[in-house]
Specification:
Elements lengths: L1 E5 L2 H10 L7 E7 L17 E7 L8 H19 L5 E4 L3 E5 L5 E13 L2 E3 L13 E8 L16 H5 L6
Parallel strand pairs: 1-2
Antiparallel strand pairs: 2-3, 3-8, 4-5, 5-6, 6-7, 6-8
């Protein structure tokens, strides 16, 4: 599902899942007006970024949430390094991908959000104590700053791939 503008890909993916959408369903938006992060913080999602949520039916339990979140971040770093080998990336647990900015400091370039259901109970697994419960479904939300403009208040802690590469970056 591709939207020009939507409140949140994560909320739309949850709604689609509630309507019976299968694992592998992808929700992508050019702009999000109500994107959010792990603690419910607003995620600035202007045109030019990559904003998406993927519904999966995991075969692992809640006790593996942290490992899965790290694996998702590692995949993003691997893809970014493959396309932008001149840039340096690192993972800030549990759900951020940082890039070395000019001046040497690392700034946030990507955020991950995992939302799931365990035996019919909706939850955010990154804030629960892990146990042996199994997921009914899991939604992986990704917000990647590519060619989007950042608001002034985000500039001290965040950056975009375009800013780091010095050129527009294909999404």
């Amino acid at each position: 599902f591709h939207y020009d503008e939507i409140g949140s890909t994560q909320i739309e993916a949850k709604s689609l899942r509630d309507q019976g959408a299968a694992g592998g369903t992808l929700v992508v938006a050019r702009i999000q007006t109500a994107g959010y992060g792990r603690r419910g913080d607003f995620w600035h999602s202007a045109s030019g970024g990559l904003w998406f949520s993927l519904i999966i039916k995991p075969s692992f339990g809640l006790d593996q949430s942290g490992v899965f979140s790290q694996a998702c971040a590692q995949i993003i770093v691997k893809v970014l390094k493959g396309h932008l080998p001149e840039l340096e990336f690192e993972i800030k647990a549990p759900n951020d991908v940082l890039a070395r900015a000019k001046g040497g400091q690392f700034k946030k370039v990507c955020g991950l959000l995992l939302d799931g259901s365990i035996s019919g109970l909706s939850c955010n697994p990154q804030t629960l104590t892990p146990n042996s419960a199994s997921y009914d479904w899991l939604i992986v939300g990704v917000g990647l700053n590519v060619n989007n403009q950042l608001s002034p208040e985000l500039r001290p802690a965040a950056t975009t791939l375009q800013e780091l590469a010095g050129r527009p970056v294909p999404r």
